Structure formats: structure tokens, C-alpha cells
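Retro notes
What went well: the complex prediction finally ran end to end.
Inputs used:
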Amino acid sequence: MELNLQELNATEFPVPVELEDNIAITSLSQLYNWGRRNSMWPMLFGLACCAIEMIATASSRFDFSRFGFEVMRATPRQADLMIVSGTVTKKMVVPIVRLYNQMPEPKYVLAMGACASGGGPFKEGYNVVSGMDKYLPVDVYVPGCPPTPQALLYGMIALQRKIDGQSIANGDDVPWYGVGPAEPTPVPVLGPDIIDPRQMDMIRRQAESAARDMGLLGSRELPAITQMVAAKAETAEAVAEAAPADTDALNVVLPTGGTPWAEAEDIREKRRLRALARKALRASRRAAQAEGE
Amino acid sequence: MENLAAAPEQPIETASIDDAVSFLKSNHPDAIKLDDRDGYEGVIVDPDQLLDVARVIRDELGFDYLSSATAVDYLGEGDHMEMVYHAYRTSGGGALVFKAQTDRENPTIPSLTGLWRGADFQEREAWDLYGIRFPGHPNLKRILMWEGFHGHPMRKDWREAYYEEELKPFDSRWPGGHVHRSEEKNVFGKNVSYPTDIDLNRLMDSSETAVYESLGLGVDVERIMDKDGFETNELVVNMGPHHPSTHGVFRMLLTVDGETVTSLEPVMGYLHRNHEKIGERNTYLHNIPFTDRLDYISSMGNNHGYVLAVEQLMSLGRKYNPPTYRCEALRVMMVELSRIVNHLWAIGFWLNDIGAFFTPVLYFIQERERILDFFEAVAGSRMMCNYMRFGGLFGDLPERIKSVANLTNDRVRDYNTMQFLTEMINERIPRTIDELELLLTQNEIVLERSVDVGVLSAEDAINYSAAGPLLRGSGVAYDIRRADPYSIYPELDFDVAVEEEGDMYARYRVRVTELRESVRILRQILPRLEATKDESIWADGKPGAYQPRVPHGEAYGRVENGKGELGYYLVSAGGRGGSSNPWRYHVRAPSFINLTPLGRMSQGYKVADIVGILGSIDIVLGETDR
């Protein structure tokens, strides 16, 4: 990628014309994002038909290296971008979530094609997940079945634009600029049907009400989910102590305390409060600054 | 049309299918009854005597190749389950169809894996999706869904979470005109439904344990003690479903002793997107775009097999016009072009697997792009062509098409279609094949890596129901275009590619020869297209029934696709006027069945060879898992 300083220069700070090729005055965020957006390495990870078009996009005619998606890496540890290229099945979503947890932050997810965006033509199938966003946060959706290489390139460039808008000074934008370690996404469980640990409580309530409707209440023991969560929480702590960096081991375990569903709510609430606090702090600083002037 | 020489030991009175059936009828009168349902063929065998009869079919009648074994649920039409087997002779000819019926409550049919090991995965699939037990099967566990899944989803009374109605079009959509998102109607907002007796206390993710169970893990201490000095433990290496060289979301469990593979078990279903269940709700027409997504490298071939099967059924009815000559010629051209795409892709990715990472592929993709440009101009889409229709095609060739000249000069140019085709078929593709051969066929590294690796003998290849280049690479000259011809192949001049060695290199050679043969066929197609310029692609000059009502009966349409025999088994359960939705829609996927011998072929080779062996089979997961 050729270094274009003019592209990097913040417009509010004029640089003398003769120095434009040598000097740029910019913000740290802008410099940081400029570096990041131009070295987004996708994970070498094909699911279905879309993967073929993804390979076509990577090869000579379309060549996404031109835009900074330099090389595809087979390991999630070296990847910045997960292109979900194809139908996500219930059986496959378990490894996908695990792979996502293994990717270092900052990380992005691009849902390529109709299936990854919302289930696509196979949506009604019993083994099909109706869209990657049911389990992972998706940054860019690319429509098409499969999207043409041009469409995929457009989606990737849209992601770069999205990165440009993010700021390292603002922790509300993206989780990885906030404080503290990231929580791994809970890995789904393959029971009688796929179970999202975040919905465990809801499933229990549904099962209870179904049992009540059918007059089964009292005839058998009702599921007591808290016991299971407590048992899992113990192992979670043990695992975390032994190998804190091993997210693989961690993410099979449900969040500690309470139910997973409530836990997820808590996390969201905490994040919201934190963001509000930071906003207030910044506002007061600005006010103090203005007063000082 | 030449029928390949019949095996000499075959008794003359059983040569034709009808003779074979009457031979069975006279020799096993109590076990056999003719299938006299309207539009059905073959015989129904008493399940208790299935093994004996199957042995006669294989050994005495010479139907040595079990192409397809699949289940049908006749809920409401006799309330039984049925296994349908299609057996062929590798010397050529049609199918002997035999069936075994069992009740729905406790369906049990003896396993045929002892006779045809190719039945292995197909019976596992029938257990997984239909819940039929196969006593005698060595490893009967779920194959596409995970162990612990509730129910057997292909049964007619099993309903998926987003179930709306039995058949499409759904009343709410048409004529209702309402559209909703299915997740909005689901309590969980997802495509899930749980049995009411779900016990979250004892919830266990047993899917993984079950996968490893059959490997018989654990260290055999005595065996280790027997080895003097050097101690090695067997180790299980898990490859996939996320792995750069498994050609998609395929997974293999290798048990290795040092670097040598002692056993290999394929694990699949990671792309099981319920093609057949959806297909049985769809109308016949709906399914054409779905077939594109089976073997997504060669969608034209998938279309062809499907329309052939439906046309077989339609020809049972009264109002049916067979496709015109121009239509057939166009079909063959499209199919052969997609065979070229498929083989270029297969060879390229096989080279990736044996170490030539991506360089050769880039050159092959260059030619592929031109062919895709052509498909896009003709059918509207690069990959998912959705081109063929029952009795016709989506459209004729356009007058002019747009494509790029080459990859270094990607300015889009306007070409006359026939000129574009002539140049592509006569110059560009042969040049690519020459270049490919020049660089690879005698390449020392290719030879070193592939000769005598992944050997599959001819007997095994037949017994494992291998198809396509895998079968022909093992010295069995079985190509459906010749053995059981369809379309206009009988009048075309081409040879069946065959190599004797049965190793990776032989499969590569078969593919290269088939590339050349495809070009040879295409060269014969071009003048036929010129000659039929004024002919319509539809029999009456106007599009036929897009949404046909298909008469009662069954059909098995099969084509020689790039990866092997692609078959569609269809059952139409229509009443008098026929039905517009299939009752049973089954895909005999070559990629799926070709994986059956993978374990056998891999034994004794090194881990690094395994990716190459898998690459030389040439699988595509859309078709494997369906």
C-alpha cells in the first residue's frame, strides 16, 4: 500500500504545499485506523458456495490485496476479519463461535451472501441458522446468492469506511477500545436442538409453561437450571486460573452467577452505564476547559 | 450408441433388466413381488430375504455396482418405510431397482454393507434422517445431524421449527400476499424448537463424544509393551471442519501412529442444509435453483440431472414434449463447459493440497472466469446458473456477450457469442490444457507426491460405489454418458478416460484426458449450434409448462457430472392430475458416496498425503452434506 500522506492529513491543519509529500498532521485515531483498515487480514475460512466467489475475489482478476486485505490466514489468531462465506448450519455455528472467540481484537465479521445474512434460500431448513447475527455481531452484510466478487469488494471497502469512523478516544464505539478484557461469546450447545446459552432461562420457562399446559407439572421434576450454571461456574474459575489466556476453555463455560440470559442483560447494562459515565466526564472536562479559557 | 461389451460369464437370459427381473421372480417366488404401483418399476423384496436376493443380484445377475440406496416415507400412502436400491452393471445398461418395505413404528431392514460397502454412508443417512435401523451395519450412527438431535427430520410427520405448511406455495404468500419473517413467529427468535420434555438439568452436548466413540480410543497397553524399545502411542488428529485443505467444512479424524495414518473417519454434516426436506416442500420448478447449490462448481450439470429425472416422470403423462435438438445441444455444451470448470478447479486445488500453493490455481481460474462470463451472459449468474427447465431452457444464446480479454487487460469487450465460443473452445481452453500438462504431467514433484499414493483397486472402487474420475482412475471404464446414455451423447464422438493404476496420479490423468474429451465434444457441438440456429429451444416454439403437474410414479435420473454419478431419485405422489410437488426428492451425491472409500485409501499413508488423497477425490461440501 503506497503511503499517501495527503489522505492522512487532517484538513483543519494546513500543511505548506511544498511539505505535503513529507508531513501530515493528523490525529492518533486517524493514523491508527489508517494502518488498521489497510491491513485487514481475512480468515481463510470457507463455508459454502460463497467461498468459491471469495476465492475468486482473492485471485488475480479481482484481487482484494489491492485494498489491503493482503493475505488470508488459516488461523484465527492472525486474522482481523471473519468473512462468513456461506450457509451457517447449527452444527457449524459451534466451531464458528469458537473461532470468533479465538480471533484477537479488534475483529470484524462480514456476512457474505443471503445465507450468512439471514438464512437465505435454506432458511427454513431444520439445521440452518437464520443468519450469523443470531450468534455473532455482524459488521457488514453483503447481499447476493452468491455475491459477485465486485459486491464482496464493495462490502469490504464499506467495512474500511466503518473503521475510519471509529475512534480510539471513544470507548463507546467498539468494545475493544473500552476498559477491561472482552467477554467471549458463549458457545452454543448441541442438545436436542441447538441451544444458545444466553437463552437458557427462556428455554426453561418455555419448557415449564409447556409442561403446565400439558398438565405435566408435578409429575416430573422441573428443570433447575441454576444448579447446572453453578456447577459450570466452578469449573470456569478453575480453568481461568490455570490458563487465563485460553479462551477456548473459557468460552464453553457459561458466565458466572445468575442465569446466562440475565448475565448478558447485566453486561449490556453495565456497558451502557460506563458509556454514559464517560460521556459525562468528557462533557465536564470540556466545560472546565471552556471556563478556563 | 455402443454398449460396452457385456461380461462373458453372464447368462444370456438375464441380460436385459426385464429378464433379470423374471429370473428373480422365478427363482425366488416367495421373496419377490413386482412393484406394480402406477409408474413404479423393479421388484419389492421381503426384508427377511433381502440379503439372499441382493447376493443373487450382485453375483448371479452381475449388478455389481450399487448406485443409490435411499429411504422413502410413505406416510398416508400405505404407511410404511421403504428402502430403494438402484443397482447397475459396470458393463453398462439400466438399473435393477429393488425395494424393501418395513413398518414405520419400528423400521428395520438388514444392512447391505456386507455386500456393497458403498451402502455404508447411505444407510447411515437413512438412519439419521428416517430412523431406519440396519442390523449388521458396523457403525450405525448419525452422519449428517449430530448425535442427540431430536427426531429423524426427513420423516413426513417431523416438522421443522419454521414449519408453515406441508407444501409450497404457502397460502399466506400466495394467494394471501402476506410476507413475514419466520423468526418473528418463533418464541426464541431463532430457527429452533425443543421437545417439551427437554431436561436442562441433564443437558449434555454428546455430539463430540459420539464422534470419537467409535474410534475405540484409549491406549492398548499390551500392544505397546509388545514393541521392543521404541514406544509410540496412537494419537488422534482432528482435521477440520475449519481447515484450509478440506475443501470446505469437512472433517476427518485421523488415528496416527507416528506420522502414519492407521485409520481415518470422515465426519460430515457441517453444511447439511436440508436440501431434501426443503425440496419436498418445494414445487418441481422451485428445486432447480436449489440444485445449483449442490455442487456449486458445476451448477449446469446439477440442473441437467434434475430436469432429466423430472422429464422421465413427465413422459409418463400425456402432455409432454421432449426437448428440441437445439435445446439438447445447448445443454450438452453447458454441461461440458462446467465439466471443464470443475476439472480445472479440481486439479488446481489438488495441487494446492500437495504443495503448489495457489500458483497453478490462478492460471486455471483465469480460464474459468471466461467461462463464467459466458454463463453470466447466457443465464444471468456466474455460478448459480438456474438455466435448465423441464423440456427446455431458460433462454437461448444471446447475440453478443461481454467479457474481458484477459486478466492483465480487464477492459470489458463486446463479442459475438459464436466467435467468443469458437475462440474459447478451439484456442484458449486447449492452450490452457497444454500449458497445464507441460508444467505438471511430468513434473518431478507431482510424480513423487502422487504416484502410488492413495491407491484404490478396481474391485474396491466398484464395491465402494465410487464414481467419476475416482472410479475410472481405478481402471473401471464406467462413464454414464456411454454406459447408460442420455441426451445427445450417443451421437457424439468421444472416449471414456480410464487409467489402470488407481492412485492419485491416475485420477489426475483421468481429469486431464476428460478435459481434452470435453473440448472434443464441444468442437462437435459448435457446428450443431450453427445448424440449428433457427430452431427454438422449446418444442412448440413457446415455453412449456414451467410448473408441471407430474404424474404418479418414480424416476431416477442420473448424469455423469464432473465429480461422478449425480442421481436424482424422485417420487411423485400425485393423484389423477398429478402433483406439482415431489413426495420424495433424493440426491445421490457423488461427493458424498466417493468419501466412503476415503478411510480405506488413506490407511498406511502419511498425514501429508491425506490432504492430497482427499483433493484427488474432488469433493464439494454442498453436495456431500446437501
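What we learned: The two ends of chain A are 43 Å apart (CA to CA).
What to try next: split runs per interface for comparison.
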